[in-house]
């Protein structure tokens, strides 16, 4: 009877241990895995079309994924191809047609397996120009600021089909008087920046102009420069208040915008800055600036309130006056550098968005955590916290082993008593065997 009771206790103890281990494993969150998407270089570029390609390297446990391309004149893309459904990993492509000749285009691959959209990196190509075609674009850097706005650069990008001498003319105010003229030998598509060329002393909107000529072909373009007034004092009896919130998104892993995000080497990031103006009056002449920490490189793609902006937030930009009750949203792209830029262990990359004018200065930070040589993980996994990290490392088995040892030593389930009884039975059996052997020898 006692043996039956002991057996039941042993069985109950085993069931309890298995239940505890099962509870630990099944309480772990399930990873929301996203696809892995890469954007490949273009091919077969003509004056009005190009073939773009990408690669789906991971379905992340799903049976299929929907893939497509986004493209346009800027990193806002605007256009996209039709969705394709892929049931296996591999390369895919699409033909972009109806394009403008002699024009620079941006594109990227995208995919979604039902758990979230993932984008490949941004790539560019220029459509071919005909032999009798040349184009030029003009950018003023900076294109706005308070008076006096001095030392403005004029950057011209030339697109064509033939290499040769390019003759440039620059006019800061489009008044018919060229402020600079030069000739340089350049490739079919190239650029030239006239540094610190233009000075604007008075408030107003100006038009800068560029003209280029090569092999008898000419092209022109313009750019606007806005010069604002100096900061007005806060109105009597009125106040303004600015608030800033900085968040970051890991595009590669498909995370949402958060204060702190995990990332791997080479991951694409998207930063968001939200500035809120409140009070009785407008916040005058507001600037915003953001510096990249070591380990992250700025990729551009600046968008202010849904509109693509060619300036660099690293240098600082003027947002002009922000009326009370207005919210301005700013996003831009960045990328985690390769592993040689990091130390072993966890690297906390903190960068701060600075919002300021002559009356105040406020800031907020966002953090990107990059681990080198300690925790291995795929770049496309959505982080689910500490338990998720334990599940993908060697620490979890060690914890489970420690739990089992603790349960055994704590005498909660009687493992120690069962082992002692079992040892006594084995010792008695061996002693009887040895005694029987000695008796046989004496006979």
Describe how the helices and strands are arranged.
Blueprint: H1 2-26, E1 36-43, E2 50-58, E3 65-72, E4 79-80, E5 84-86, E6 90-96, E7 104-112, E8 117-119, E9 123-126, E10 135-141, E11 144-146, E12 149-159, E13 164-171, E14 180-186, E15 190-200, E16 204-214, E17 217-228, E18 240-250, E19 260-263, E20 268-279, E21 283-290, E22 296-304, E23 307-308, E24 317-322, E25 327-336, E26 345-356, E27 361-372, H2 386-391, H3 395-409, H4 415-442
Parallel strand pairs: 11-17, 19-27
Antiparallel strand pairs: 1-2, 2-6, 3-4, 3-5, 3-7, 7-8, 7-9, 10-12, 12-15, 13-14, 13-16, 16-17, 18-20, 20-25, 21-24, 21-26, 22-23, 22-25, 26-27
Provide an overview of this structure:
The chain is built from four helices and 27 strands. With 443 residues, it is an alpha+beta fold. Strand 16 and strand 17 (217-228) form a beta hairpin. The strands form six sheets. Strands 3, 4, 5, 7, 8 and 9 form a six-stranded antiparallel sheet that branches. The protein folds into four domains: 1-29 and 388-443, no CATH class; 36-126, Immunoglobulin-like; 135-228, Immunoglobulin-like (Sandwich); 240-383, Sandwich (Immunoglobulin-like), CATH 2.60.40.740. The chain is elongated.
């Amino acid at each position: 009877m006692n043996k039956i009771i002991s057996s039941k206790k042993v069985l109950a103890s085993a069931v309890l241990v298995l239940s505890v281990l099962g509870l630990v494993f099944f309480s772990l969150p399930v990873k929301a895995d996203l696809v892995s998407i890469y954007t490949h270089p273009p091919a077969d570029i003509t004056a009005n079309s190009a073939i773009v390609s990408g690669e789906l390297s991971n379905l992340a446990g799903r049976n299929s994924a929907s893939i497509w391309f986004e493209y346009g004149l800027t990193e806002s893309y605007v256009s996209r191809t039709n969705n394709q459904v892929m049931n296996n990993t591999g390369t895919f492509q699409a033909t972009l047609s109806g394009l403008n000749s002699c024009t620079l285009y941006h594109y990227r691959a995208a995919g979604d397996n039902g758990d979230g959209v993932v984008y490949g990196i941004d790539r560019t190509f220029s459509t071919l120009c005909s032999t009798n075609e040349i184009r030029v674009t003009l950018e003023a850097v900076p294109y706005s600021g308070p008076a006096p706005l001095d030392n403005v650069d004029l950057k011209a990008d030339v697109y064509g089909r033939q290499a040769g001498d390019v003759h440039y003319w620059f006019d800061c105010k489009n008044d018919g008087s060229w402020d600079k003229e030069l000739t340089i030998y350049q490739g079919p598509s190239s650029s030239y920046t006239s540094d610190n060329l233009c000075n604007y002393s008075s408030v107003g909107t100006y038009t800068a102009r560029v003209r280029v000529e090569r092999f008898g072909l000419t092209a022109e373009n313009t750019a606007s420069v806005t010069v604002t007034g100096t900061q007005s004092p806060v109105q009597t009896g009125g106040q303004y208040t600015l608030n800033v919130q900085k968040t970051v998104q890991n595009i590669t892993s498909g995370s949402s915008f958060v204060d702190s995000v995990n990332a791997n080497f080479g991951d694409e990031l998207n930063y968001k800055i939200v500035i809120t103006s409140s009070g009785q009056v407008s916040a005058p002449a507001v600037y915003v600036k953001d510096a990249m920490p070591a380990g992250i490189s700025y990729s551009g793609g600046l968008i202010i309130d849904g509109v693509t902006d060619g300036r660099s937030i690293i240098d600082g930009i003027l947002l002009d006056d922000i009326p009370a009750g207005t919210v301005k949203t700013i996003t831009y792209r960045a990328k985690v550098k390769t592993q040689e830029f990091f130390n072993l262990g966890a690297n906390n990359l903190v960068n701060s968005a600075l919002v300021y004018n002559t009356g105040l200065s406020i800031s907020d930070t966002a953090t990107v955590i990059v681990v080198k040589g300690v925790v291995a993980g795929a770049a496309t996994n959505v982080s689910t916290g500490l338990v998720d990290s334990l599940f993908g490392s060697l620490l979890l088995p060690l914890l489970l082993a420690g739990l089992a040892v603790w349960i055994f030593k704590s005498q909660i389930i009687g493992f120690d008593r069962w082992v002692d009884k079992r040892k006594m039975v084995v010792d008695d059996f061996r002693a009887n065997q040895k005694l029987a052997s000695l008796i046989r020898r004496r006979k």
